[in-house]
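Why does residue order matter? Because the sequence determines the fold. Keep that principle in mind as you read this record.
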Amino acid sequence: MKWALAIGILSILAVVGVGMYVTDFTAYLGNNPTTCNNCHVMDAAYESWYHGGHAEWAVCGDCHTPHAFIPKYAIKAYSGYLHVSAFLLGHIPDAIRAKEYSQDIIQDNCIRCHEAAASVMLENVA
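Structure:
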């Protein structure tokens, strides 16, 4: 029984390890925008970023993930799960929209980088 359990665990680890290797899993831990563009559904977003004003100042993670270490990788893991699930199940929306939690992160990051302009705008709203 112990051997069967050990072989089962080693088999699972081997499958996960090979899967991580062939998918270049570690690339998704970084901030390279071309990694985000690996999925063809991101072409328009990538092109918009690449030719837009943010390309020389920010990459995908600067806007779309929290900046603290643990929340950043928690969001990357959750988003990755959602993306893989959508591709595997074929539920890819025609128009990709940020989820509510993601909109809050993006808004916080916009304000963080553009604090001076945001404070002026917020003063005019109040």
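The two ends are 69 Å apart (CA to CA).
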